[in-house]
Every structure is written in structure tokens, then in C-alpha cells.
Amino acid sequence: MNAMISGAGSDRGDDHGNDLHDGAPGADWHDLGPRDACFGDSPCLQATVNGVKVGLFLVDDEVYAIDDLCTHGHAMLTDGELDGFEVECPLHGGVFDVRSGKPMCSPVTRPVRTHPVRFYQGGVYVKVEG
Fold first, then answer.
1. 122 touches 21 (CB < 8 A)
2. Which of 6, 29, 34, 88 could form a cystine bridge with 125, CB 3.0-4.6 A?
3. Cβ-count burial of 10 within 10 angstroms (0-12 exposed, 13-18 middle, 19+ buried)?
């Protein structure tokens, strides 16, 4: 998978693909590429930001970002199945909500971290802290 993502942002003030109207993202925001570069055939893709593998998920024209590594089986969540706001780990079938990172069913019990996503001047930005 590559680091190019797309999605239509909203102006709701949330952190999963809203347009920035108050200036460019700061140095702690990572530019993933142009907004018009599509996910292609998959609503899931992986990017490495600050050494962290991040899973990006396009759901209802919003982009959500979580750590890509399952907290139970150490598999890449972007290799799993996305159903609505839930992604299923391909290894043991644990499910996470991509909006909150919360585990939704066994065997996962620990959440994955979420990361804010923003759009600015056609680019998609994600903020990942160590």
C-alpha cells in the first residue's frame, strides 16, 4: 500500500479529514499527498509516519487513522476487512472501531491509538506522536 489518500472532508470540526481554514498544518503534521489521489479499489491503506505504521480508512467520505498493528495478534489491520466503521484483524478476527480505536469483540481487549487527519490545500495530513 502507498501513502496517498483521498476523501471529501467536512467542516464539522472533527479530526478525520476536515478542511483547515486557519492556516497550514504545523511541522507535527505529516503530508501524505494530494487529496485527489484515490484509495483505488480498497478503502484501506497503510502509511509510515514518524516510524509508526498507520492504517487509514475511508468511510462515508471521511478518513480515519489508527495504529495499523493489532493489539492482540500483531497483524496489520489494513490487511483485514473493513465493514462500516469496523475493521477486522486478519489474524484472529478481533474487531476495532476506526473512529475511536476501541476493541469491539474478542479476542482484542486493548484499543489501538487514533490519529487526527486533516485536509489543507488539496493535501492530506496526519498527526502521529511517537
1. no
2. 29
3. middle
Write down the domain spans for the chain.
16-127
What is the rounded distance in angstroms from the CA atom of residue 74 to the CA atom of residue 116? 22
User: What's the average model confidence in pLDDT over 72-80?
Assistant: 94
Tell me what pLDDT residue 18 has.
60
Per 3-state DSSP, the chain is made up of helix, strand and coil in percentages (nearest 5) of: 0, 45, 55
Q: Which range among 1-10, 45-54, 103-112 has the greatest average pLDDT?
A: 103-112
| Higher pLDDT pick, 12 / 130 | 130
Contact 68, 57 (CB under 8 A): no
26: CB partners within 8 A, 6+ apart? none
Q: C-alpha cell of 95?
A: 474487531
pLDDT of residue 111: 98
Task: Flag whether pLDDT at 38 surpasses 50.
Answer: no
Domain spanning 16-127 has what CATH number?
2.102.10.10
User: 50 by DSSP, 3-state: which?
Assistant: coil
